[in-house]
What we know:
The structure holds three protein chains of three kinds. Chain A has four helices and 14 strands. By secondary structure, chain A is of the alpha+beta class. Chain A has three domains: 46 residues, CATH 2.40.50.100; 60 residues, CATH 2.40.50.140; 77 residues, 2-Layer Sandwich (Ribosomal Protein S8, Chain: A, domain 1), CATH 3.30.1370.10. In chain A, a hairpin with a 4-residue loop joins strand 13 and strand 14. The longest helix of chain A is centred in the last third of the chain and has 17 residues. Chain A starts with a strand and ends in a 9-residue tail after the last helix. By secondary structure, chain B is of the alpha+beta class. Chain B has a single domain, classed as GHMP Kinase, N-terminal domain (Ribosomal Protein S5, domain 2). Chain B contains five helices and twelve strands. In chain B, strands 1, 2, 3, 4, 5 and 6 form a six-stranded mixed β-sheet that branches. A four-stranded antiparallel β-sheet of chain B has the order 10-9-11-12, with helices on both faces. In chain B, helix 2 crosses helix 3. Chain B is elongated and about 65 Å long. By secondary structure, chain C is an alpha+beta fold. In chain C, the strands form three sheets. A five-stranded mixed β-sheet of chain C has the order 3-4-5-7-6. In chain C, strands 8, 9, 10, 11 and 12 form a five-stranded antiparallel β-sheet that branches. In chain C, 56% of the residues are buried. At the B-C interface, strand 3 and strand 6 of B face strand 5 and strand 7 of C.
Amino acid sequence: MREVVIPGEKIAGGKELRAGHGTFKKKDGVYADVMGLVDTSKGFAKVVPLNGRYMPREGDHVIGIIEGLMGKGCFVDINSAYTGYLSFFGDREYKIGDLMIMEIKHVNEINKMDLDFAKPLYGGKLINVSPVKIPRIVGRQASMVETLAAGSNCRIFVGRNGRIYIKGEEEDIARAEAAIRLIEREAHTKGLTDRIKKLLETGGKDGNEK
Amino acid sequence: MTVEDISWEIKTDYTRHLAKKKMREDKRKPFEYRKIELENGYIPNALGSTRVRLGKTEVIAGVSLVMGTPYPDKLNAGTLMTSVELTPIASPMFESGPPRPNAVEYARVVDRGIRESGTLDFEKLCVTEGEEVWMVILDLHVLDYNGNLFDAFALAAISALLNTKMPKYEDGKVIREETKGKLSVQKKPVECTFFKIGDMLMLDPSLGEDKALDARLTVATVGDRICAMQKGGNGSFTMKEIDELVDMSFKKSKELTKLL
Amino acid sequence: MGMKSDLKLIKNGKRLDGRKPDELRPITIKAGVLDNANGSAYLEWGGNKVIAGVYGPRECLPRHRSSPYKAYLTYRYNMAPFSVDDRKRPGPDRRSTEISKISAEALERVIEVEKFPNTMINVFVEVLQADAGTRCAALTAAAVAAADAGLPMRDLIVSCAAGKIDDTVVLDLGKKEDNFGQADVPIAILPHSEEIVLLQMDGDLTKEEFKEAIDMSVKAAKQIYELQKKALTERFKKGGGKE
Lengths: 210, 260, 243
């Protein structure tokens, strides 16, 4: 397991390392500024956060809920401290409460964002996970989310903002959710993919239940 | 409607969908409680205290005994006051400030369950008629809100009262460090909170179910008697449903009293 | 502070509870104990029991408090009614308000609030059982909770108090020492740079005694920091989250 560091801790590796995400530089080296796992590959010292609320980034796909209409567009809640704005195109009619998956087109310096390419989501279940676990839930080249979808017979839409939408039969949705929760708890451990596959086969009975 | 209400609409849609199929999100049976953990004496310095975990809901009940003057219409009786703090640490839905309507409702319903069941012998709490009586103060504090505060608070309350020590009272002074015996608690009332989504009746709402419910019924029982009831939510129950729930509450209360 | 008594608080270098002048009471810390709060920590320090929860960054309400330059940081120190012998009425009092203010100011030195304009970060600390030194226990727990929430911080904060009893400078006053002692100096420091971000003093001290008290606290801070670190790193050994 990679090393866990806490804010203010010096990252081993000497002064040759450059300060990457989750770090700051002082005269005598690079320090972590968030609690997370250290990554010192490629000459950069990076800390991958183990927790944190979602901060909008250009290009991210997020699942949002329309919370207000204004002019030729609407405000979208993306479960972040920041709200997005989605412009309407053509005759598309959105209403308050609609759930959509969309892309963050642009983020400005005070984190105000413009959203685009919205597709509505309905008929399934919305769940919230810690946004920092999303990369593990998606997996390298979407391998993990594909395993989840195939193993549970569900369609799974993953928002980088920690929202996941699952469509399928109720028991299948429950299986997919159980597997996702397992990833959330054990994201940083080895052999996870095998445990997930096993969990999906056994129909959602969590082997970790006391 | 706040942003929060809107995002809850979406989540509760699914909860309602499951209820139509007689299913629950956490796969519980309709009248099944979540895991309950009870720890007495959680606050050792308090005269009586209990922490209850009901699923992920976590509350603490603390009992204080203060010497005071009796009410003018009951000069030989001690008093009971129940107070609930919905501290903002417990949920993004709680704000700092004076008690809101739901905090008041929780306090009064728990209070009624204890008071109407004759749990406390108020006359025993009288030290000098007309002048000095013990005031029992029950403080209910929530640390993590995940649905069903009624039952969590009620269970913590009776359990804390059951293990409350009586401080010594001598020459007009309360000597806390020396305790003499326990608070006299005569009954063990418990509360069961049921709810209805569509046509489905269930017990012990989780957070999502609390948001999705159409109507809620809390029934406090002691032995084979009903001592308090409270209906909440903006839906309704039929008489037949209420009958069914009252029967179920006698059944379920046996499970709860076993924990005390 | 300063209650009159014939009680001898320190005899032959031993305090009422057997501690040496520079000895801390036992402390345990656990992170990630609440489900709702984004970050949380439970801390026991002597007889103190505190729980800290952090929410944020989240939308800033009321709107007029939001700043385009940084997050609006709030800290609410609250004592549960059953936390003290004389039941405390629920709600903030002047003492809680003061502690909340100076603790927020301390945290603002380390939490990188500029990264979150127009938002708010809320820190809540509930004192469940009080046994002298609650504000230090609270802030120490709050720093862990903030890190647990994934907030970017320059360092943690360690808070500790020292004081004077029977003309002797001692570390970490207990309840009787606080009531009958001669001085109390709570401080909070950044463990790496030893910068002081919270400092209060009340009582009667010479300049040398004051310096001695500060030095004692700074030295003890290192021990407390190790416990904070352990609480955070252990969070992830079991898989994290409330069981």
